[in-house]
Design goal:
alpha+beta; five-stranded antiparallel sheet; disordered C terminus
Amino acid sequence: RLLDGGAGTVKSGTSESSGAARSVGGSYFGPEKMLLGLYPIEVGLRPVSVDVELIATYRLGPVFMEPRQRTVLESSKRKSSTLETVGLIVRPNPELGDASGSSKEEDIQQPDDVSGSLKKKGIPRLTLEQARLVASAMNAVLPSMYRGAAFDLGVALDIRHEDLSPDRELDPDEGIVLFDLDPDGNGSARSVYRDGIELLLRLTRSMIERVLYHNRLRALHDQWGDENEIMAGRDPVQRYQGAQLKGGSVPSVQGENEPADPSEAGRKMDQAVRKGALEWLDSHLRPEGGGGSLAVVGKYGSGDEPGEGDIFDIGRSWYSQDESVADLLWTKHRWRLAGGGEAALDVGFDRKTAEQSRHFTSKDNVLASYFLVYDVFMKIDAFKLPDNQGIWGAPRFSWHRNPESQVPEPCGQGLPTDPTVVEYHKFATAVAAHSYPALESLAKTLAKSWGDTSDRYGLATYISRFVQGIPYSVPKSTRWELRPPVSTVLYRLGDCDSKSLLLALLLKHCGIESGMFVSFAEGHALCAMSLPAPVTVGEDSSSTHFRDADGKFTSEENAVKPEGEVFHRGNAAMKQIQAAVDLWGVENKLPEHVAIWSEMPETPQVPNQRLVYVPIESTAEMDPGDTRVRVPDSWVFLPMQAIWMRFATEENISRHDSSEMESSQE
């Protein structure tokens, strides 16, 4: 409670004395309104009296800090004390008034650029449960900001209302108090006030955002003493047994009339508290990374921020479907660089994206629309290539060097049209299309960290090291054992094809054409990246060959497939492409010749301009092009043109709509 009523009178019990209590460092201030973001808070430095009562003690686990034993003291044995000191007062829900003096929230004129949904929702206000979470996070981060804060500063809630319901919004005169732990103060609270409250609130937000299990945070740093709550337990199973969510009962998971799993209900309520606290912080702080628009609370979209502290810290990157940053899941990546040293990066995705990308089973309908796009793409006449080369964007032959003749040879017969290859290509393309937008921010962050985007090989090496640093793990619960790229990043787990697909999407976002090499005989997959420039080949570079029932070459009359198979075996075009691959390897100082490669027309309309693709290993720290294969003729190339064409079409439509809108406004 405040010792100073605000008019210079110190109140302690029933006695009064004139003048404010003396404080270490000077006079007192406020509380007064302070505007850091869209809405104000009240901050003040006042003499305070803190009543402390020891109700219970916890014994925590040494690793996960979970409460293992709770000892609640009998009333007669409880110790209490009063500390008269100095406190920094933060009132999260102050009374707001306009120029006419109105303090009603509905009468306050909000900015014109605030969205209608936000106006309808109203100003975010901190509840008691959210305030406890914020206070716990403050208690956790203060020692990292101020030397000795663990022993010199305490954090408490100033609650004046008798209603202690978790969902009750704090009154205007209630809030959080950072108080000195010495009588008459020690200057610590004044130091925080002098430096400004914004940094503390930002670090508090980061703590709440990053910590997934708030019961551990509270077990260590929450000093709120509620005997009934302590007896019930802090873990979600016990704490939320029979609890009700705000606005309704706990939702049923198994059946309409069956109660939900208490632990699931607990997690949902913890998520709701976390989200509410983050929304309040976002509405009272400027957007991180600069003074951008404050139009929509917490709607900061996807983006990135530079690192702080350690020189190898790149920073953090995040993606959100609805542009909200109040419910992100984070993971930390740390990997070795090609030239020595290491790098670290925090990556976040919104919860909805993370849940959608956990796995795709045969029962999921998430990919149905992408399968449809693939099927339509493969039937478009405009994408049919001449000389029976098939569909532009369909699986293609890979090529390898004959060790004796040194001439290029294609992979085994019929591989590009094998039903297993086609089905896998369709599934991988759908998964990639689903995950592609969510990886843009991460790719741009990595490219920005590398710096010289004109150095394609260096950029590809840098990004490949990021993917190669993800631990190897084969997902058993997914179709084709292919983990979605977002899941690979978020859980830092993936096998060869999962990581190769992730690397292909990151390279594409950085302007490098990409795809995949797959060998079912070897049970392995590689990423594919294009050479810097297409190779021009002659029009007569292709030839059609025919096979009999035994797979041997034969005449057209005895062929099993009347359309034949198109090869570039041994002709000038393939030797020209092989020469381009060899030159690329020499320029980038590869220790050996590139093991496999592939080619495809740059566009269906210009089949003689060929993009040439070389492999990148995703599971071992190897440079692009430096790969080893055991069965060269078992590899097939899987392009991703169906994805790129779809997103290019959507971007063109969006760009066209924007141009029309600008024209109509003019």
